[in-house]
Amino acid sequence: MYIIMAILGFSLLIIVHELGHFIMAKANGIKVEEFSIGMGPEILSKKGKETQYSLRLFPIGGYVKMLGEEEASDDERSFSSKSPLRRISVIIAGVTMNVIFAIIAFAIIISNRGYSEPVISKLVENSAAIESGLEIGDRILSIDGSKVFTTTDVSMGIQMAKGGSVDLVVDRNGNKENITVTPRLVEEDGSQIYQVGLYYTLVEKPTIIQSIKESFNETISLVTQTYKSLAMMVTGKVNFKTDVGGPVTIIKMSTEVAKSGLISLTYFLGFLSINLAVFNLLPFPALDGGWTVILLIELITRRKVPDKIVGALNYVGFMVLIGFMIVVTLKDILFPISL
Predict the structure, then answer these.
(1) CA distance 204 to 208
(2) Are 3 and 255 in contact (CB under 8 A)?
(3) pLDDT top residue among 251 and 260
(4) Rounded CA gap, 138 and 172, in Å?
(5) Taking a C-beta distance cutoff of 8 angstroms, is the pair 161, 144 a contact?
(6) Are 94 and 276 spatial neighbours (Cβ–Cβ below 8 Å)?
(7) Given the DSSP bridges, would you call strands 146-147 and 139-143 parallel, antiparallel or unpaired?
């Protein structure tokens, strides 16, 4: 049952993403030849007025096939016949829908559970926080130069410092104060983590406006953290065996989260939706970000990038992505992440 919920949840993110492309394609008068959920062999298919709707075997992706997307077409309803701005609007619509989904999901959760503000409500005795000069009522504005949107930003900054000191900027009665604090390694729930010894202010019953505002903060925070994680992968600061997961890990994690209840699963789907959006915006061929770069070049130079070049880039990019997916999936099987 939980596995089914996890697969359906992951599939929902794909539907949301592809629905964005589909809606904007229709809005721009582009003919959509196929709307597919999943990849690989076809399971179900139904022909609409002009679009074929398909369900495929592997729930690891999906696509919207538009007329003139892969090759030039003189048809006025083709993707290739539209202006760069119109095509960009179609390409980024999927990412936009993923972000909107996350914002709505977080707002629903926050309105029910409340949230913590990065405002100190209590200090632990003899803690690093007290020694550093932090005070009750201080609002943490930044950590090591990075703006703080949620309390998670502070926690992440402390853990990433790995025991080194962190520089905080706090708002104290309207004045900005610079505080340097050195976290201490403590044991919590069987694992060792770094802490400074403080509690945050809890907003138990937020208003609708507060829920929406905090939802935006949560979304921005996750986008920032995701980009930082990608940068750590590129620089080799992330262990591929223990810290990187693919489809198998995602489904396993979703299944475990589903056991904790619908609210937890909803948050996790919002988290995955942001990751999907960020990944798709990377300027890599075959991804939405790669397409956007090509269209921006056309917009600036006012010259169309040759279809052969676009086709070759997308083909190579697609093959690289498939190869990476296979490697990550094998890694999931051979070196599973402990949950």
Answers:
(1) 13
(2) yes
(3) 260
(4) 5
(5) yes
(6) no
(7) antiparallel
Structure tokens at 234: 């590129």
Phi, psi of 204 (to 5 degrees): -80, -40
In this predicted structure, what is the pLDDT of residue 37? 85
pLDDT (tens digit per residue) in 143-166: 999 999 999 999 999 988 888 999
Q: Which CATH superfamily is domain 115-203 in?
A: PDZ domain (2.30.42.10)
265/269 Cα distance (integer angstroms) = 6
Residue 299, strand partner residues: none
Give the distance, in angstroms, between the CA of residue 136 and the centroid of all CA atoms in the same chain: 33
Q: Are 91 and 179 in contact (CB under 8 A)?
A: no
Instruction: For residue 143, give every residue at least 6 positions away whose Cβ sits within 8 Å of its Cβ, in sequence order, or none.
Output: 153, 154, 157, 158, 166, 167, 168
Instruction: Find where tokens 């995701």 sit.
Output: 226
State the amino acid at position 128 in one-letter form: A
State the chain's mean pLDDT as an integer.
85
Q: Is 69 a catalytic residue?
A: no
Q: What is the mean pLDDT of residues 191-201?
A: 90
Hunting for tokens 């003899």 — which residue is that?
126
Q: Taking phi first (over 0 means left), then psi (-120 to 50 degrees means alpha), and beta for anything else, what does residue 32 get?
A: beta
Task: Tell me how far apart the alpha carbons of residues 255 and 3 are, in angstroms, rounded to a whole number.
Answer: 5
Which of 158, 118, 157 has its CA nearest to residue 141? 118
- Locate the domains of the chain by residue range: 1-114+205-339, 115-203
- Give the Cα separation of 215 and 75 in Å (integer): 42
Here the tokens at position 296 are 């921006």
Residue 334 has a CB neighbour count (10 Å cut-off) of 8
- Tokens describing residue 271: 């988290």
Longest CA–CA span in the chain (Å) reads 74
H-helix or E-strand spanning residue 46 = strand 32-47
More confident residue, 263 or 10: 263
